[in-house]
Amino acid sequence: MTVQIKRVYEEPSEEDGTRILVDRLWPRGLTKEKARVDLWLKEIAPTNDLRKWFAHDPAKWPEFKTRYHAELKHNPEQMALLHQAIAKAPATLLYGAKDIDHNEAVVLLEVLNRKKPR
Predict the structure, then answer these.
(1) 49, 50, 57, 82 - which has most CB atoms within 10 Å?
(2) Calpha distance 115→54 (Å, rounded)
(3) CA-to-CA distance for 114 and 79, rounded, in angstroms?
(4) For the segment 34-85, what is each residue's pLDDT rounded down to a tens digit?
């Protein structure tokens, strides 16, 4: 399993593999053709309440991660879909946020890396 994260507004590349959008909302101003999204897992994204509370405030990042982890634990169906999508080929988790260090894809990648078989 090779998974990376990338801002959806960046140019798609062959190295991306399966492109998985993990945002609840479609990225503004981006057409489906330009985004080249293979799978949109909007239900794996943080809930609207959590997303609005966080508002990409880095000071809230530790608490956001804790709350989002809790949401993911209660969303096994979406996690199973994600695991299926990344099982056989390289994949890229796509996000729309401008902040490359504080977004849901960062948290998802941490979760996936923790669950790697040893």
Answers:
(1) 82
(2) 25
(3) 13
(4) 999 999 999 999 999 999 999 999 999 999 999 999 999 999 999 999 999 9
Contacts 24+ apart (CB under 8 A), 51-56: 51/24, 56/97, 56/98, 56/99, 56/102, 56/103
Cα separations in angstroms, 82 against 10, 11, 34, 93: 21, 22, 22, 10
What own/partner pairs with CB < 8 Å and gap ≥ 24 does 111-118 have?
111/69, 111/72, 111/79, 112/1, 112/3, 112/82, 112/86, 113/3, 116/1
With a threshold of 0.85, does the pTM exceed it?
yes
Measure the CA–CA gap between 27 and 9, rounded to whole angstroms: 8
For 26, 51, 64, the CA distances from 37, given in Å and listed in that order, are 11, 21, 26
Buried b (16+ CB within 10 A) or exposed e, 66-100: ebbeebbeebeebbebbeebbeeeebbbbbbbeee
Enumerate the domain spans of the chain: 3-114
Lookup: tokens for 90: 């390289």
